[in-house]
Design goal:
Blueprint (H helix, E strand, L loop, with lengths): L3 H4 L15 E3 L21 E3 L7 E5 L11 E5 L2 E8 L5 E9 L4 E5 L10 E5 L2 E9 L4 E10 L4 E5 L12 E5 L2 E5 L10 E5 L4 E5 L10 E5 L2 E5 L13 E5 L4 E5 L10 E5 L2 E5 L15 E5 L4 E5 L12 E3 L2 E5 L13 E5 L1
Antiparallel strand pairs: 1-2, 2-3, 3-26, 4-5, 5-6, 6-7, 8-9, 9-10, 10-11, 12-13, 13-14, 14-15, 16-17, 17-18, 18-19, 20-21, 21-22, 22-23, 24-25, 25-26
Length: 348
Amino acid sequence: MTGVRCALGIALALAALHCGSDGESTSGAGGSTGTGTSNGSGTGPTTTGGQGGAPASGWISVAPLPSPRQENAVVALAGELYVIGGFDAQASVLASVEAYDPSTNTWRGVASLPEPRHHVHAAVVGGKLYVLGGLKTLSFTADGDSWVYDPGSDSWSPIASMPAGTERGGGVVGVVGDEIIVAGGLRQGAVADTSAYDVVQDSWRSLAPLPKPLDHLAGGAVDGIVYALGGRDTGIEALSGDVYAYDPGSDAWSSRTSMLTPRGGTAGAVHDGRLYVFGGEGNVASQTGVFEEVSRYDPGADTWTMLPAMPIPRHGTGAAVVDGIIYVPGGASTQAFGAVDVHEAYIP
């Protein structure tokens, strides 16, 4: 078997991934592939088997979360995937944190957050995990308390809170140098606030706001530029397809090519200099209200590409990359609440 991802080094359920097959196979409604708004119908796994020993690509299922979880953050740290906070299947707010090891296809618990949170902003810098602000309880109350996690000691320590009046959850996060930039988010409604946390100085500073208030957006940083993709403003179905780029050098935002499908509540990840956006909610064409779309944005070309749809469409989670594979754990399979333990991985 020549596909470098076909082995993965773990006991994966690879029946859905036909490694070594030729060409591209996409199954969906009527066996078709399309762009724009989807109805979220049960799209199955899609694979691309490379010719001449090229790597295979597509969706695979991996070990499910220990329990259902949504509105959690997801990051990669030291070769593992960390899933942080969120809601469980009973809509109780979680403090627990779970780590997934792709080499063994297993989960383990690590130290919980000091307090239960959902919609937290999370990022990894210098081998440590930072959690900045977030939302509390079912009232979605914004809170600025922030912490740093040291995997060596499996412990959390308090750091400078988001300044009063800027606390929020559900924004987009990008790391540029020693700063974690948080743009947009929810504080009794969508906000345009943009802030930077300096991990060395343990301090915050305000930056130029987003061109408009947005929450539940995706994005990340590529080559020192932070990208904000989609989101919403006044409700689940008040979707935006706008794309904005923030340049720290000029402290200014600029508009880029819009998303193929406006979406909010998406999972986003950065891989190989491009941004991936998975799922989302607010889909009026679907009985579940959830989007199955997966798309990729190339900042250099300022272009979008539609990719194979999620086998199980979801919203309300994050995504992260470990060894070139993008993992999308948990989320909800119905609009609003409906947490699941599903864990799928996309091989670009």
